Amino acid sequence: MTQPTDSRREHLRTARSLAASGVPVLPLRAGKVPFGNCRHCADNACGGRPNMKTPGPCTCPHPCHGWAAATTDPGVIISSTWVRAWREAAAVAYHPGGAGLTVVDLDNAEAIAWARASLPATRTVRTTRGEHWLYQGATQSTNAVRPGIDIKSTMAYARWLGPGTGTITALPDVVRALVVKEPTAVRPTAITVPARIGGGECRHRTPAYLDRGIAMAEQRIAEAREAVHATVYRTFLAVLSTHGRCGCLTDTHIARLFTAAHAKGESARHCTDAWTNARTRLGL
Q: pTM of this prediction?
């Protein structure tokens, strides 16, 4: 749905201002999610950026690839393809890690109370359901580090909700400790993926292609805010539909998907059921 002209202009002004201050930005569509890949990049046909470790699109000028589309280039932000996206944008997002920042996303009153008792004061931004606490310094992004608390920094995006109040302070060790805490390992049941009928070389065996697909699946699960069961099932289904018939999935890849689902609160049984149902749906 196209946004009112005033909203579009405000989003564009905000994006240009943030980019000028060194904060990589991208448009968000309704539902607070990035725009999907353009037809040139659909199904990762473009190859994406290597391992998606740096912000920015591949080589196309569209706001593709989620958080990795974030840019500070004013020429890109006001380009014709991005302007079309701004017409439909519901909000502006930014890549905290690309700006050297970490966002502690506090989703409810209990999470805010914990932060006030456990974290040093810093710049605070009010959100729909809670608060964002911004710290200087980048770290790994991890969801559900505590009930109602996500860490958004590298390889993630956060919605821009204003500059906030208070003085930003250095990223504390207690936040870094939350990020590096290992999630409980989840071992999926043994799964034998059938070889592709007809044999031949599997086009998915290119490590970058397969790893990118798994990383995107992990990100899709990690960013689920509701309907987690359905998101996990649909993500498993998408992975299996692309890689399930050629034998390129390994136990390591499958374990990564299960671990991502477990980090969102899915039990081992729910993970196994979703995987089995997806296999059944595809006749694997």
A: 0.63
